[in-house]
Design goal:
Layout lengths: L5 H6 L5 H7 L4 E6 L2 E5 L7 E6 L2 E5 L7 H11 L4 E5 L5 H4 L2 H10 L6 E5 H12 L1 H11 L16 E3 L2 E6 L2 E8 L6 E6 L4 E5 L19 H14 L3 E4 L5 E2 L1 H27 L4 H7 L4 H4 L11 H13 L14 H12 L2 H13 L3 H14 L4 H17 L3 H18 L2
Parallel strand pairs: 4-5, 5-6, 6-7, 11-12
Antiparallel strand pairs: 1-2, 2-3, 3-4, 8-9, 9-10, 10-11, 12-13
Helix pairs in contact: 8-9, 9-10, 9-12, 13-14, 13-15, 14-15, 14-16, 15-16, 16-17
Length: 421
């Protein structure tokens, strides 16, 4: 892909990732180094890197269940050898969900199923997905507007686990596995010293680091930055991100790693400094600012996650769930608070009308509060629900992150449905 101009336009911010996704949609194989290729089918599914060895292929990640077949076809056009080992960079389903297809291919060909290698916490993650399948199904179904969605579970766990580092020698190829915490607690990045290729997993994703998802478990901005610094010290000549195109050249790889680390270090430093002064969460959120020059980089734009969400995640990690506001320690039920405010305002309809006026003036954050209070004070009032839907639509229009728009859309759809009952 680096030869057809799309990469260069991405690098210079002249093309959107959607253009690259469309170009790789049939399953595109990129030659990374001698005996190493990476397969992409879309930005939204993790990349799969295949390494040729004298004992068979080593795969780093598997794609998800839907794209695993397409990925295998692309790999088989390159090499038809048995798959000896699969390395999970972490336990998310877009990186592990294709394992069943890989095992099925081995069985159909009368071959042993591949050994799986990963960090010790991958198995714990897969167990947690089993325990919380209902919750994850609801969250994912809401976020991506897929009613009835069932979160996939049952991925095969690693056969060989490690804690901090693991050196493998497979068929004449050395692989160094290193653990770090970032988007997940079970993350691995893989270093191929003979070829100076770094496979980063989701520590590099061609977007602002996904370190603050509001409805997912704890994420680790400070340790993410530390992992990027460790990668930078390796001085890779090729960087294979967990999502997005391969980055060729030592200078560009170093720039991506430096910028990602510096961005996270800035957010962490500002947040901790304010927490150490005794500021409330609200005060921290209003004061912390990500460096604008770094956010403008084409591989760090906050198109999915949002710096504000990352600050919230850090607060939760270092300070717990209490935000420093007395009323939030043991808050009143939402419906009771909404009813009291509506009575003070002269009715829920007045709250709703004020919410629409604020939204029209661009004050969508404040408008969302009033619209939700109005809806909770009069949940069966279809006109108020319609007003709420209009306010949330304006909030969505002003939201810059895909994640923020997706979560707001959950409640906007709810309001529209209630307005028609």
């Amino acid at each position: 892909m680096e030869h057809d101009g799309i990469f260069e336009r991405l690098w210079h911010g002249e093309a959107a990732m959607e253009a690259w996704t469309q170009a790789v949609s049939e399953g595109v194989l990129t030659e990374v180094a001698e005996g190493v290729v990476t397969v992409h089918s879309t930005y939204f599914c993790g990349s799969v890197t295949a390494i040729r060895t004298a004992e068979g292929l080593v795969l780093i990640d598997t794609a998800n269940a839907a794209l695993a077949g397409k990925t295998l076809v692309a790999i088989r056009r390159w090499d038809d050898s048995a798959i000896h080992t699969v390395i999970y960079t972490h336990g998310h389903v877009d990186h592990t969900g294709g394992m069943a297809a890989i095992d099925a291919e081995a069985a159909a060909r009368g071959r042993a199923r591949p050994r799986i290698v990963g960090h010790r916490d991958v198995g714990r993650r897969l167990e947690r997905y089993q325990a919380t399948q209902g919750y994850n199904s609801i969250v994912q179904g809401q976020q991506f507007n897929t009613p009835g969605f069932s979160y996939p579970v049952g991925q095969r766990p690693p056969d060989l686990v490690y804690d901090e580092t693991l050196s493998l020698a497979i068929g004449g190829v050395r692989l160094e596995l290193m653990h770090g915490r970032g988007e997940t607690d079970d993350a691995t990045f893989v270093w191929l010293p003979q070829r100076r290729v770094l496979v980063s997993g989701d520590f590099v994703i061609w977007m602002f680091p996904n370190a603050g998802n509001p409805r997912k478990v704890q994420r680790y901005a400070a340790e993410w930055a530390q992992a990027l610094r460790r990668m930078q010290a390796l001085a890779p000549e090729v960087l294979v991100p967990g999502h997005g195109p391969v980055i060729f050249g030592a200078a560009r790889a170093a720039e991506v790693l430096e910028d990602g680390a510096a961005l996270l270090e800035s957010l962490v430093g500002q947040t901790l400094a304010l927490m150490n002064e005794g500021r409330t969460l609200d005060e921290v959120l209003r004061a912390v600012r990500a460096p604008a020059g770094l956010l403008a980089k084409p591989y760090l734009r906050p198109l999915y996650d949002d710096p504000e969400f990352v600050v919230r995640a850090m607060w939760h990690l270092y300070g717990g769930w209490f935000d420093g506001q007395a009323a939030q320690l043991k808050p009143a039920p939402v419906a009771e608070l909404a009813g009291e405010l509506a009575a003070l305002a002269g009715g829920a309809d007045r709250l709703a009308a004020r919410a629409e006026a604020l939204a029209a003036g661009g004050q969508t954050r404040l408008a969302a509060h009033l619209a939700e209070f109005a809806a909770n004070a009069a949940p069966e009032d279809r006109a108020i629900q319609a007003s709420r839907a209009r306010v949330l639509a304006q909030c969505i229009a002003q939201e810059t992150s895909l994640m923020g728009r997706a979560f707001l859309a959950v409640y906007q759809r709810d309001a529209e449905a209630r307005s028609r009952r």
